[in-house]
Design a protein that fits this description.
Blueprint lengths: L2 H4 L16 H9 L6 H6 L5 H11 L3 H10 L1 H14 L3 H17 L4 H11 L5 H6 L5 H17 L6 H16 L6 H11 L3 H9 L2 H10 L4 H14 L3 H6 L5 H11 L3 H16 L4 H13 L2 H9 L6 H19 L3 H11 L6 H4 L1 H7 L5 H16 L3 H17 L3 H7 L2 H7 L6 H15 L3 H24 L1
Length: about 475
């Protein structure tokens, strides 16, 4: 069964948080061998007799024995585990208890209901104790608690209330941004689990989660984290509304860059899966078409041609390459020059494509830059203000000059949008090409009547020609 056959319902797909060895998992293996002295806790009355009896019985039996104990003493199990977390202060013991709980849930995911039933009876939040542990200082305790929260929230979605969900997703987002976080892989795995639930996807977007994923991907991260975070984006695209909004965040250009540099097959696979969803999942067909055009604009089609020449064992890659090629090639055939131009501007990746230098294009389409409240012009002005790329600045300056030259009120519009001032600032840019294009644009902005200028130039050329002829006769 392929990945795409499995994932419409989004079960675990073998990502059970144990699939790859992480720092957290290495520590789990070590902590399992460090069994606490429960007798000393009982003697010092730090735990009750009921808790002592349960934990010693549970901790000294095999998996079958533990299953029997849990079936008979569900309420006591929840009470003991939560009581130990609350009343024991020694980090090493808390670590051990969290490993016991995590193992218990991993053996049988229905056991999350043990905590849910107990919390309902006590009228307390199911994840409350684990949420509190996120505020501690021990990295293992914090991230093991996070792992348990993810399992409870995913395997019993009604077990986490809106307040705790908001807090937890915000916490995960902040952990992704934490510098030198050795538990990054574990944080990403929690997020991979959480975003399988549609309600959680929407909440993650509301806490600015997608922007955070892209911000981290922009930095230097290893291919494992790269894969995990792109997996999170992929899962988000199973929601049609989110799939339609994705490229407003710049997802397509970002993933196109990673695809062109990727040497890991699983990273290639997951990016192609995202691109496929961005075409298949939107309910608005015009959005799917926009996504195709955006992919063409950032050279995805070229990359697909390269991938097509490679041999892959993964049939998903082969299928997705073929699907995407067909869709992108079809979109190219339907593309008008203005569609191509608009897509390029919206991508923010201006380059000297033929459409910019075409006088016919500007004669026919200059006025169309006024559409949707000057949407494309505002984007050009924004690029002049924010881009650090000399080619982008050069092309944006040129386009603004051409707009002014071919639209009668263009000078006034550009001044109103703040474009004239920005073009003039680039007259002193360090790059000579930017300075040159800015100078040409300023000259066009200074001319009041292009038709008059054209006639004057023709007149001057005619006069020059007549003078030369007279001189030749003389």
């Amino acid at each position: 069964m392929t990945m795409k056959e499995i994932l419409p319902n989004l079960p675990e797909e073998n990502i059970d948080m144990l699939a790859a060895t992480s720092v957290l998992q290495q520590q789990v293996t070590e902590i399992r061998t460090q069994k606490p002295n429960w007798q000393s806790y009982a003697k010092s009355q730090m735990i009750t007799k009921d808790d002592f009896d349960f934990i010693t019985s549970y901790d000294n039996t095999d998996a079958a024995g533990r299953a029997g104990i849990l079936n008979e003493k569900r309420q006591q199990a929840a009470k003991t585990f939560l009581s130990l977390l609350e009343h024991v202060s020694k980090d090493q013991t808390v670590q051990y208890v969290l490993v016991l709980i995590d193992d218990m849930l991993q053996e049988d995911r229905s056991r999350v209901e043990i905590f849910r039933d107990y919390a309902v009876k006590k009228k307390e939040p199911v994840c409350g104790q684990f949420i509190n542990l996120l505020n501690g200082s021990d990295g293992f305790i914090i991230n093991m608690s996070s792992r348990i929260i993810a399992k409870i929230a995913c395997w019993s979605p009604e077990s986490i209330d809106r307040t705790d969900l908001h807090f937890y997703l915000t916490w995960l987002k902040d952990q992704l941004l934490s510098k030198n976080n050795e538990y990054m892989q574990s944080v990403a795995r929690c997020l991979q689990m959480m975003l399988r639930i549609d309600n959680y996807r929407l909440e993650f977007i509301n806490v600015d989660g997608l922007s955070t994923l892209l911000q981290v991907l922009e930095g230097r991260v290893n291919f494992q984290i790269q894969y995990q975070l792109i997996f999170c984006i992929w899962v988000l695209t199973f929601n049609p509304r989110l799939a339609e909004r994705m490229n407003k965040f710049g997802v397509i250009p970002m993933l196109a860059d990673i695809l062109s540099d990727s040497v890991k097959e699983k990273v290639t696979r997951i990016i192609l899966a995202v691109f496929r969803n961005l075409i298949e999942k939107p309910e608005d067909s015009s959005v799917a078409k926009e996504h195709c055009i955006a992919m063409v604009q950032v050279k995805v089609l070229k990359q697909l041609n390269i991938l097509e020449q490679r041999k892959f064992d993964d049939e998903d890659i082969v299928e997705d390459v073929q699907f995407l090629k067909e869709k992108l090639e079809a979109s190219v055939q339907d593309l008008s020059s203005f569609d191509e131009y608009a897509t390029e501007v919206k991508s923010g990746r201006l380059e000297w494509s033929p459409v910019h230098r075409s006088a016919q294009f500007w004669r026919e389409n200059a006025s169309r830059l006024n559409e949707k409240n000057y949407e494309l012009l505002r984007m050009l002005v924004h690029l002049l203000e924010t881009s650090q790329d000399p080619e982008v600045l050069s092309v944006a300056s040129y386009d603004i000059g051409e707009y002014v030259r071919h639209y009668p009120r263009g000078k006034h519009v550009i001044e109103q949008l703040g474009g004239k001032q920005l073009v003039m600032q680039h007259l002193s840019h360090e790059d000579p090409n930017v300075r040159y294009e800015a100078l040409l644009a300023v000259q066009k902005l200074m001319v009041h009547n292009w038709e008059y200028l054209g006639r004057q130039l023709e007149k001057e050329q005619s006069t020059t020609s007549t003078t030369k002829q007279a001189g030749a006769k003389a």
